[in-house]
Amino acid sequence: MQIEHAQPPITGYTPFALGFRPFFWAAGVFALLVFPFWFSHLWQETLISHYYGDNISWHRHEMLHGYVMAVIAGFLLTAVKNWTNQPTPSGTPLALLFLLWLAARVAPLFGLPPLLIAILDLLFAPLVALAIAIPIWRARQHNNQIFPLILLFIAAANLATHLNLLGIIETSSLQNSTLSPLLMIWILIIMAGRVIPFFIERATKGFERKSWRTIEILSPVTLLLLLAAQLSTHTTLITLAALFAAIVHAIRLMGWYTHQLWREPLIWILWLGYLWLVVGFVLHALAMQGVLPLSWALHAYFAGALGVLTLGMMARVAIGHSGRKMQLPHRAMVYAFILVNLAALIRVFAPLLPLDYNGVLGLAAAAWCLSFLIFVWFYTPILLKARVDGRPG
């Protein structure tokens, strides 16, 4: 009789065991460093990168295609493995994918040829799309095929940005500033609908989400309508699409509400992140009517919805996939969650504050950086060390 020997538990450092590990860690470090780096160049009136033309353009691009894309890649490479029971890149392939992301971040800082910068940056999203499309196709999970498709749309929007920078085509500033974040929000809307109410139900007693089939169908459709309106650049259409999105997502969000969620930081951070999305839609509609600057809406999307939701997702997913008990690694993370929301509030409503522009930027940057410093400090061991239960992943 052959005796089967149990595999020894996995120990030590496993930074490339699963997608969330390198990309969540890199996203946290990048978010921590990018603001003081950008702010120092603004203060000294020096140019970060000649390729992106001005510091605002570099900052906007890197927050989206650097920080947010790292979080999305980490989440999808991890989630698709669970959904399909098929492997996603790990080990050397994952390390190479990570190095590509990193190369695209540093290339503009060293004045490399513009075409090389564009190629490095443009390769990442399609490769992530391919990495998740293969297991999705093998598992025949047609409902998940939307994720690689949206990643290709993000790559197309990024391509338009680079072609504009290279002087090959000309795109409007409205399209440049809104298409990529809306596409990333589209991914977050689909993911949030799957995980946020599930997480709330798991963390609370006796709560059952209120879900309406019509609202669930309309939730991703509202983003399609808003994207189409943005491409048209017709202000009335954009206003109506943004208002419609605000109403649909507000109803969806209230169906997930229970007073018990305020007892669980890992839950209320996600709920507030989705609330910022509703705020962004409302501000977007008002901006299209000239009531307030478009920057209010953009910062509600960037710092609010994308910033708060991604931090909450990283905090929750990293704990679950490292085999730990579902609780924060340290109480200081509560302050990180408060600070990231405070940074969004300051940045969105900056014109209402009795401070000059640099003063507002400094306050928002300080709150943001402190938030991600806390995250990196307490989550680095979680993200880089093996699971506490010794299992792979």
Walkthrough of the structure:
This protein has 393 residues and is an all-alpha fold. The protein folds into two domains: 16-44 and 51-171, no CATH class; 184-385, no CATH class. 72% of the residues lie in helices and 0% in strands. Helix 1 (20-44) runs antiparallel to helix 10, helix 6 runs antiparallel to helix 7 and helix 10 (294-320) runs antiparallel to helix 11. Mean pLDDT is 92; it is low at 1-5.
Q: How would you sum up this structure in a few lines?
A:
The protein contains 12 helices and no strands. The chain is mainly α and 393 residues long. It has 2 domains: 16-44 and 51-171, no CATH class; 184-385, no CATH class.
Number of domains: 2
Average pLDDT level? 92
The main β sheet shows up as: none
What class do helices, strands and sheet pairing give?
mainly alpha
Percentage of helical residues?
A: over 70%
Number of strands: 0
Uncertain residue segments:
1-5
| Rounded Rg | 21 Å
Percentage of residues in strands: under 5%
Distance between the termini: 32 Å
Q: What form results from the Cα inertia axes?
A: globular
Number of helices: 12
What's the order of the H and E elements? HHHHHHHHHHHH
